[in-house]
């Protein structure tokens, strides 16, 4: 079905409408798990609202009928600066889980980052032949960490994304109130062999998942662990969870391949700075030495434009992918990606930009509070 035809049958015009549709498709406690943030959800909401405060200064008569959106990240060519972020438990939205997401990624030429906490194994998701990266937590038992790395390597994953902002889980009050738990037909597919069947059943509630993090994940991580990890694989390593410019400096010193400005979708430390507000200060430190990516709160193609103009090389999209998956499976995800791509191109034309790689803060009228 052609793109124009898909737009004719889509029953939403923007991602806010899609979220409302997804809410009707997903079991309520599962939807709350996907949608919720930590504590008062201030950071969760600020991630979205901060983009709205940034005003654009368009240029005119620039002759940009066909904007160029191609980029290259860690040696990998991408048609657009859009990557599918790692999010847990896609099986809550669709029975095909991450298999459907990976197929949509392949069909739209989009890189996907598979979560450690996926309902689909590393090996099965790779069968899609999409360009896959793997998101990794570092476990206390380094054997588990190494085993996951080896599986990713043997399944032709092209990068590791190391989450560094979750030494413990943030307090997610919706999950506590709902006593959220995984349905019996779902599992943490990449970790089941490390957990006895009885334990797996016991660990399906939110509190039990928190206990699993406390018991299994290394909450004493330091930069030495990043050095150790780099010695264990030849895959490019990107650090996800950087918000402070000083940590960006340390990331450069650690010689990682890239960093992702992220606050875990507002799910960890509430009142942490929004990602787009943190971006300019970090971009100043990175100074194009390594790829700089960002996630959190992106709901419009113009949001992508703003992120690129303020120093990002690409963006990662999380919750909207889940909404698309719930709405219409593979096609629903493709609709989300195509929606953002088309709006990005439209925004480039309206702001007067011929090539995504030429965007600078000169098109920004009002920046965030962070120094640029």
Describe this structure in words.
Helix 12 (245-253) crosses helix 13 and helix 14 (301-309) packs across helix 15 (319-351). This protein has a single domain (3-366), classed as Aldolase class I (TIM Barrel), CATH 3.20.20.70. By secondary structure, the protein is α/β, with parallel strands linked by helices. It is built from 15 helices and 12 strands.
- How far apart lie the N and C ends? 44 Å
What fraction of residues sit in β-strands?
A: 5-15%
Name of the CATH homologous superfamily = Aldolase class I
Radius of gyration: 20 Å
The succession of helices and strands, N to C, reads HHHHEEEEHEHEHEHHHHEHEHEHEHE
**What percent of residues adopt helix (DSSP H or I)?**
40-55%
CATH class: Alpha Beta
CATH architecture: Alpha-Beta Barrel
**Main pleated-sheet profile:** 8 strands, parallel, barrel
User: Would you identify the regions where 5 or more consecutive residues have pLDDT less than 50?
Assistant: none
Total domains, how many? 1
| CATH fold-type name | TIM Barrel
Overall, the morphology is globular
What's the number of extended β-strand segments?
12
Mean pLDDT: 92
The assigned structural class equals alpha/beta
Strand order of the largest sheet: 4-5-6-7-8-9-10-11
């Amino acid at each position: 079905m052609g793109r124009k035809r898909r737009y004719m049958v889509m029953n939403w015009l923007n991602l806010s409408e899609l979220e409302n549709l997804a809410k009707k498709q997903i079991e309520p406690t599962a939807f709350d798990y996907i949608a919720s943030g930590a504590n008062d959800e201030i950071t969760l909401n600020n991630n979205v609202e901060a983009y709205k405060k940034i005003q654009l200064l368009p240029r005119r008569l620039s002759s940009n009928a066909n904007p160029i959106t191609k980029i290259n990240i860690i040696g990998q060519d991408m048609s657009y600066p859009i990557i599918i972020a790692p999010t847990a438990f896609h099986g809550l939205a669709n029975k095909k889980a991450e298999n459907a997401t990976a197929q949509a990624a392949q069909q739209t030429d989009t890189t996907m980052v598979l979560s450690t906490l996926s309902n689909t194994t590393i090996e099965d998701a790779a069968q899609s032949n999409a360009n896959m990266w793997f998101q990794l937590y570092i476990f206390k038992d380094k054997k588990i960490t190494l085993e996951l790395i080896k599986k990713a390597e043997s399944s032709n994953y092209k990068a590791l994304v190391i989450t560094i902002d979750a030494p413990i889980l943030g307090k997610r009050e919706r999950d506590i109130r709902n006593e959220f738990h995984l349905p019996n037909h779902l599992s943490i597919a990449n970790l089941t062999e490390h957990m006895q069947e009885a334990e797996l059943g016991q660990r399906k509630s939110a509190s039990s998942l928190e206990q699993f993090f406390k018991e299994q994940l290394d909450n004493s991580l330091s930069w030495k662990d990043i050095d150790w990890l780099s010695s264990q694989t030849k895959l490019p390593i990107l650090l996800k969870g950087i918000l402070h410019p000083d940590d960006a400096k340390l990331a450069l010193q650690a010689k990682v391949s890239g960093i992702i400005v992220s606050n875990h979708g507002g799910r960890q430390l509430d009142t942490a700075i929004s990602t787009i507000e943190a971006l300019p200060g970090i971009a100043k430190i990175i100074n194009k030495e390594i790829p700089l990516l960002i996630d959190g709160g992106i709901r419009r193609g113009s949001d992508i434009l703003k992120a690129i103009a303020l120093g990002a090389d690409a963006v990662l999209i999380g919750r909207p992918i889940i909404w698309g998956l719930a709405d219409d499976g593979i096609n629903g995800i493709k609709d989300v990606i195509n929606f953002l791509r088309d709006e990005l191109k439209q925004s480039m034309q309206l702001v007067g930009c011929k090539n995504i790689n030429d965007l600078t803060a000169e098109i920004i009228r009002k920046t965030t509070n962070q120094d640029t």
